[in-house]
Amino acid sequence: MAEKVLMKGNEAIGEAAVLAGCRYYFGYPITPQSELPAYLAKRLPEVDGVFVQAESEVAAINMVYGAGSAGARVMTSSSSPGMSLKQEGVSYIAGAEIPCLLVNVVRGGPGLGNIAPAQSDYWQATRGGGHGDYRTLVLAPNSVQEMADMTIAGFEFADRFRNPVLLLSDGVLGQMMEPVTLPDPVDYEVNSKKWALGYNGKDKGERNLCSSIFLDVDELEEHNWHLYQKYQVMTDLFSTGEYKDFAVEEHLCEDAEIILVGYGIISRILKTVVEKCRKRGIKAGMVRPKVLWPYPTHVFERLAKTASQFLVVEMSCGQMVEDVKLSVNGKKPVYFFGRTGGTIPSDFEILNEVDKLVRPD
Amino acid sequence: MKKVFSRPESMTKKPFHYCPGCDHGVIHRLIAEVIDELEVKDHTIGVAPVGCSVFAYDYFDFDFNQAAHGRAPAVATGIKRVRPGSIVFTYQGDGDLAAIGTAEIIHAANRGENITVVFVNNAIYGMTGGQMAPTSLIGMKTQTSPYGRDAATAGYPIHMSEIIATLESPVYVTRVTINSTANLMKTKKALYNAFKLQKEGKGFAFVEVVATCPTNWGKKPTDSHKWLTENMLPVFPLGTFKDTQGVEKA
Amino acid sequence: MSSKVERVILAGFGGQGILFLGKVLAQTGMHAGKHVSWIPSYGPEMRGGTANCSVILSVNEIASPMVTVPDTVIAMNRPSVAKFNLKIKAGGMLMYNSSLIERQEFRDDIRLVEIPASEIAEELGNPRVANLVMAGAYSKFSKLITFDDLVACLPSLMPGGKKEMLEINLAAFKKGFDFVEEKKYMFGRYVYSVFKGI
């Protein structure tokens, strides 16, 4: 096993991308993700890769569309306002079924907001973000190690499903340093995708087309149902299939009366809160969705039978809480606690919320 | 008997959907002939725009990407960087290239991407039904300039070739038209030069073709080249604005 | 100091090498086989013109990397003391750069450690190593990293660094460590009584 190195989350994504065989990065500067392009601007030329600082986020995502169409493992990254700009391209990429990795190091919004960490892009991330009937696979790491691991997994999923994959991070995860063990590099062959533009293997069909336009209504309907079926396959794989365990982390949920729910950096804080609750004799557990779409509904369906209530904690005014409510489906009460605008809730204030729920006076 | 005229190999058998008198079909054919002559068909990749030529890929018999409005140069950048050995070109209209995609074309040109851009300028938005384009002439009546384009509120026709030529990276920038057989041959030569430069790895080449849109101009197909010659060419003069490699002299 | 986990906030002016000092502690901890985390100035205390970071060294896996109640604050300038003084855990430690921070009425439930880090660094000929003087001093108190750990880890923190720079950094560690050792009588739990009324 490789040696541990102390790395920033943003840099871990960069190095992991290189290890995953990604040789193409297109992006535009924005805080707080700038370490990632800075890292790749230096690293990619060392492995004969290409780094392009585009003229805008819009151009960057369309370069990703082009490079992905040509069969490469390719990525871009940005932070909230920049991700809004990229949505045009994401919609085309989803429609044309081009694999790629997108990274959003979420900051405070709406508008220019601020550069502090936030989770207020959950809706944008999980509801599509751009126009049209499409889905993006959304991964939510909570440590620097997972920033690396999920980057590599993200490229694999993108290729497997021919779909854009979004790594949803935040300013804390991007900037923090933790030890990381990096895996061995993957040999990725650009000329391995039969459908890609410029593919020149012997088994090449007549000619390849990467497009999202289906002017005929019947054709577009057929295409949309085809996408839908793909999303169903993904949903199954992440709920009952192969990636069931990848999709979610459960912590002390078996006997829990109150289940705390959070993703990303919040889940780390929730783990501390659970420890403190247990010390006080409160039977608390935690569910952490690691995949935000497809949402791990199955876990909540099961826990709604054993737990008596849920508390969702987010760095937003309440976005993921809607998915928890949909999953719990009215069987048990679902409460919410959030801080927003760039403030990270402390373990104490969350503990205080738990106290109010389990010991109502 | 000697065969003197046939469909270029780079074209599919699909009949054009373009309006009578529209220049797109001829420009498509010229590109296909050039690709054939340069013997690069098996590794050419086109990028189609949004506009009337959104279905360009139906007519060319090689790989294609269909890009978002204005973004073709960015998409072409991505493709070319991954497949530097391929011949990559964009085919864009005036709304696509000179309005919504201004940033993309300027910066692809400025980076000196080794691609070819074919810019078809007919001074109007065709696909959406005849709205004012950034290249519409002063006084030109369109759906969105019903009283004629007024410079005071809508500015002047934008000269993309002249703008691109001011950049250091592009190797070849030229404006042509197909209003006569002589000019058609010149257009083909310009396209040939542009693709040849790419094949040789020389850099960014830009061919602007001043073209017709009889339907949205409200002209008869037979009158539209005359109108083009009398009205558009004075505003968009033909000529080569940049030729750092001296291809036209060769 | 707990033998299982140490939560540290490090703060000072930008340019005092605060973030690097945090990295020194975290990387040393990692090399010493501990779980570590390092976060630059994020959270509600990010406003205010000083640079700060939070470091956790732990025997067990680190749940929350956020430090709301530090066991130790290492303060390199006056505003940092004002900002973090009241957050320190009761029984915790405030280690401060006494070259830039005068003695004052501090809390009486924390351990105070004054290190004239800037002066020591000046004596070494490089005012920029004041941060590493503090690292050396901290290792004297830490239950999770030792002075030897710091020394062993240093080369990995400055890859390609010049030999002279490495030496002066090692000297800074040593001076900080020795300063605490020599003055250890001052750092009893009830040290506040020494300063009261000054």
* Biggest contact: A-B, 39 and 33 residues
The stretches of 5 or more residues of chain B where confidence is low (pLDDT under 50) are: none
Oligomer: heterotrimer
Main sheet record of chain B? 7 strands, mixed
Please report the distance between the alpha carbons of the first and last residues of chain B: 34 Å
Q: What's the number of domains of chain A?
A: 2
Which descriptor suits the 3D outline of chain A?
globular
How do the helices and strands follow one another from N- to C-terminus of chain A? EHEHEHEHEHEHEHEEHEEHEEHEHEH
Describe this structure in words.
The complex is a heterotrimer of chains A (361), B (250) and C (198). By secondary structure, chain A is of the alpha/beta class. Chain A folds into 2 domains: 4-192, 3-Layer(aba) Sandwich (Rossmann fold), CATH 3.40.50.970; 249-358, Rossmann fold, CATH 3.40.50. Chain A contains 12 helices and 15 strands. In chain A, strand 6, helix 6 and strand 7 form a beta-alpha-beta unit. In chain A, helix 1 (9-19) runs parallel beside helix 6 (144-161), helix 9 (265-279) packs across helix 12 and helix 10 (297-306) crosses helix 11. Chain A is globular, with a radius of gyration of 21 Å. Chain B has 250 residues and is α/β, with parallel strands linked by helices. Chain B has one domain: Thiamin diphosphate (ThDP)-binding fold, Pyr/PP domains (Rossmann fold), CATH 3.40.50.970. In chain B, the strands form 2 sheets. A 7-stranded mixed beta sheet of chain B has the order 2-1-3-4-8-7-9, with helices on both faces. A two-stranded antiparallel ribbon of chain B has the order 5-6. In chain B, helix 3 crosses helix 4 (102-111). The mean pLDDT of chain B is 97. Chain C is an alpha/beta fold. In chain C, helix 1 packs across helix 5 (147-157) and helix 3 crosses helix 4 (130-141). In chain C, strand 4 (72-75), helix 2 (78-84) and strand 5 (93-97) form a beta-alpha-beta unit. In chain C, strands 2-3-1-4-5-6 form a 6-stranded mixed beta sheet, sandwiched between helices. At the A-B interface, helix 3, helix 4 and strand 9 of A face strand 1, strand 2, helix 2 and helix 4 of B.
